[in-house]
Amino acid sequence: MAFDIEMIKATYARMGERVEAARKVVGRPLTLTEKILYSHLSEGLSTQKYERGKSYVDFNPDRVAMQDATAQMALLQFMTAGKDRVAVPSTVHCDHLIQAKVTASTDLAVANKENEEVYNFLSSVSNKYGIGFWKPGAGIIHQVVLENYAFPGGLMIGTDSHTVNAGGLGMIAIGVGGSDAMDVMAGMPWELKMPKLIGVKLTGKLSGWASAKDVILKVAGILTVKGGTDKVIEYFGEGAESLSCTGKGTICNMGAEVGATTSTFGYDESMERYLRATSRADVADLANTVKAHLTADPEVYANPSAYFDEVIEINLSELEPYVNGPFTPDLATPISKLKEVALANGWPMKVDVGLIGSCTNSSYEDISRAASLAEQVAAKKLKTKGEFTITPGSELVRYTIAKDGYVETFNKIGAEVFANACGPCIGMWARTGADKQEKNTIIHSFNRNFKARQDGNPNTYAFVASPEIVTALAIAGDLGFNPLTDTLINEDGVAVKLDEPKGFELPVKGFSVEDPGYQAPAANGSGVQVVVAPTSTRLQLLESFKAWEGTDLSGLKLLIKAKGKCTTDHISMAGPWLKFRGHLDNISNNLLIGATNFANEKANSVKNQLTGAYDAVPAVQRAYKAAGVGSIVVGDENYGEGSSREHAAMEPRHLGVRVVLVKSFARIHETNLKKQGMLALTFANPADYDKIQENDVLDIVGLTSFAPGVQLTVVLNHADGSKEEIKANHSYNDGQIGWFKAGSALNLLRQQK
Fold first, then answer.
1. Which of 35, 152, 507, 597 could bridge to 267 as Cys pair (CB 3.0-4.6 Å)?
2. What b-and-e string marks burial along 283-314, b requiring 16 or more CB atoms within 10 Å of the CB?
3. Which residue intervals define the domain Aconitase A/isopropylmalate dehydratase small subunit swivel in the entry (predicted)?
């Protein structure tokens, strides 16, 4: 039986009435996305039509999910909200703090010892406030959610950008910052700008080497890393119905890489099969009673251009495998052209390591198809040229693939099976030799491949592909190898060709697991004590940020003018810094250390205007804070792309940065900045970015009449005594202006208690 079945029953019970009310208000047939969103309005039955891309709307999500790195800050905030128990079903998943180094058992034992304080904190907070707790080794949050909590037609939020994975089971699942999660757990409505809609029509059927991963790799090439910002991608068509549920999850998962608010699919037989295979026949039975509400109205898919803001069509029968990268997940190259493109760009051709797994591609189907290639190594008398690793997504998958012999198959080709955790995907990989920073190539089935993300080496060229292609290229050890057409020379000197991958959508003998790793919370947690030692280097109780002083901001020193791509990895690195995710002051020592300074083309080297010397970004900002001087960060396009980590907003706030002024924001990061009381602005004229000089002191004028839709003025006080005025836009509504004035959304919540 499923978790929280009564909640699912209640969601379905009200869905029909709410969908019908929305259809009348909107005055036309509805997409699936609209049905789910309108049926989760905090106002109940809809009374007005909301404008896509403009209207801010309050929703009541069904559930919240948090991974251990972001849960620390989310729960530290929740502890100050004065609540006895979470208002909606919520879970914590310990998946980010386990470093891949030796073997699964060894790495897990090390993580349990090194992170004991944090795990005890998360466990006790979960126990106290009624939160389900998934222990270290249980699996990656998104795979565990898909296996246990996701349900068609539901609305959930999670403190990780790849929460969107649950769209594979027909949800609207959205990545948020911890402050948003805290609001929902405290029983508050959750605000979202009504998204625009992209419809992706899938025709035909996958075959041969093509996989679901190739669908999203192609879409990423079409939309780019910001083409989905403030939009939901809804997939439909006969091709969509032909995909497995976990294949759909892979596609939705990587929708985060195009900036999409989320992605989803209509309920179909593949979802029903997956629900029943994962012991949720009760959910499948319930979903079958409301099928009509769990997909778009027929008129929508018959004439998609009339209902979606943008339509893309992909024929799966003609789709070939893609390899995306390096350094960005939207640089899409079909496998037939990869060798040519790689040679032309001087990419290292030797594939040193192939890595499969992660939250994106760790399903039973993924593993079984990759294993069918691994089996051919011995059968065809080949040797694997590159190193090879597997990161299972959950203990359910790991136990089942071990039982069915796939782990042994991988071991025979020298593969290493890491713990059921994020590991190399998020930079938790102790890769031998990475410190030498040698130029090399790796290929993986993860979702992101930003510079230095996986192993800390900025000279590692990381490419993203399906598990099948990763396995084939690791066997060949050659980035230019095309398994669809090329041969390999075996030990007998004979040219052999790899057979097409074969696999199983679901295990023929069913899933098995001895201990899934779940800890249920106490029925009454009032007696549970949560202890945070004042001397801890890992955890720190939060202090309120100061409220706005009621005046315009003047005398702001330029901290950094970031050049080019500045993701949340650049703003607040992961990897070894994950250990400080519960200690705001300590983790603030990584503030913007990965960003490139426009003035000198260097990372972590900015001018201290108080001394004239260059120093690390955190050191300069701490000097400004000590002197009582405010500062401003200037950035380029899609600033804050990537992870949902709110630390990238809390760190500058904690250290005294007052304003972030950029050409454009990634959605989650902009919201996180607003929630923490920061001023998030965009250049009215993006070309004004070029006017910002290294020694500038800036003023923000117009805050005393701060209002929605009204531009602010930025005064640039140059070192030569001259001044320039430019205009800045913002997207604050009245409620968000309240967050700014109070000093943070949490401050406002406390005031309203």
1. 152
2. bbebbeebeebbbbbeebbeebeebbebebeb
3. 558-685
Mean pLDDT, the chain cut into blocks of 10 residues (753 residues total): 92 98 98 98 96 96 97 94 94 96 94 96 97 98 98 97 97 94 94 97 97 98 94 98 98 96 98 98 98 98 98 98 97 98 98 96 96 96 96 96 96 93 94 96 96 94 98 98 98 97 97 96 94 94 95 98 95 90 97 97 97 98 98 97 89 98 95 96 98 98 98 98 98 96 91 73
Q: Whole-angstrom Cα distance, residue 349 to residue 634? A: 37
Closest by CA to 596, choosing from 501, 458, 487, 465, is 458
The answer to whether 230 and 196 have CB atoms below 8 angstroms apart is: yes
Which residues does 122 contact at the CB level (< 8 Å), separation at least 6? 68, 71, 72, 75, 92, 94, 133
Which residues are annotated as catalytic? Answer: 95-96, 160, 448, 643, 645
User: Counting every residue, how long is the chain?
Assistant: 753
- The SS3 of residue 90 is strand
Domains parsed from the chain with CATH numbers: 2-317 (3.30.499.10), 331-496 (3.30.499.10), 553-752 (3.20.19.10)
* Contact (CB, 8 A) for 219 and 200: yes
Reported as type and span, the H/E element at residue 396 is helix 395-403
Instruction: Enter the tokens of residue 110.
Output: 């090390």
Reported as a single tens digit per residue, the pLDDT across 625-656 is 999 999 999 999 999 998 878 999 999 999 99
CB atoms within 10 A of CB 34: 27
Distance CA(161)–CA(359), nearest Å, equals 11
DSSP category for residue 66: E
Strand partners, 723: 717
